[in-house]
Amino acid sequence: MSATDQQPAEHPLMGAVRQYGGDPVDLPFWEACAQGSFLLHQCGQCGRHYWPASRCIEHGDAAMSWVAASGRGEVYTYTVMHRAYTPDTRDKVPFVIAVVRLEEGPFYHSNIVDCPHDAVAVGMPLEVVMQPHPSGLTIPQFRPRGD
């Protein structure tokens, strides 16, 4: 194979994104998480935010771009996991998995951290905190807001 026939090197995060069921179109999101930023996909025509990357329901995908988000939201619903269904959660039970309604509108599924599981409540104000993962990804999780 000559130098002109070589494929460009794959982004270092793509293997982890694929392994955990992510979509390559969300790569800018994962890159930003590694830098401590939380992004959403936004329509440049109407301003509506989306997660994951998507097309605007009114304007399609032509004006979509990744934008910085507040990283703030509230618990919409949640469940407390008392069983470890995978080896990597064995030492974490009980833990909370929540649907977070972000201030910008979309819902985001995440863990609630830095909070006893029995203190989590619907409507609890949250803020994002980035957690490194052994896969190389940085995972947005949420904790109670201190305001």
Multimeric state of these chains?
single chain
Tell me about the biggest sheet? 5 strands, antiparallel
Can you give the helix content as a percent range?
under 10%
Give me the secondary-structure category.
mainly beta
> How many helices in DSSP terms?
2
Query: Any idea what the shape is?
Result: globular
Round the mean pLDDT to the nearest integer and report it.
89
Strand content: 25-35%
Identify low-pLDDT runs: none
Order of helices and strands: HHEEEEEEEE
Count of all domains: 1
Span of the ends, CA to CA = 59 Å
Query: What's the alpha carbon Rg, rounded to whole Å?
Result: 17 Å
Strand segment count? 8
Domain ChsH2 C-terminal OB-fold: 66-131
Pfam families: OB_ChsH2_C
Organism: Mangrovimicrobium sediminis
Protein name: Nucleic acid-binding protein
Short key terms for the protein model shown above:
single chain; mainly beta; 3-stranded antiparallel beta sheet; 5-stranded antiparallel beta sheet
Strand and helix map with partners:
Layout: H1 14-19, H2 27-34, E1 39-43, E2 49-50, E3 64-68, E4 72-81, E5 95-102, E6 107-112, E7 125-132, E8 138-144
Pfam families: OB_ChsH2_C (PF01796)
Organism: Mangrovimicrobium sediminis
InterPro entries: ChsH2_C, NA-bd_OB-fold, Thioester_dehydratase-like
Describe the 3D structure.
By secondary structure, this protein is mainly beta. The protein has one domain. It contains two helices and eight strands; from the N terminus they run H-H-E-E-E-E-E-E-E-E. It has a five-stranded antiparallel β-sheet with strand order 6-5-4-7-8. A three-stranded antiparallel β-sheet has the order 2-1-3. Strand 5 and strand 6 (107-112) form a beta hairpin. The model has no long low-confidence stretch (mean pLDDT 89).
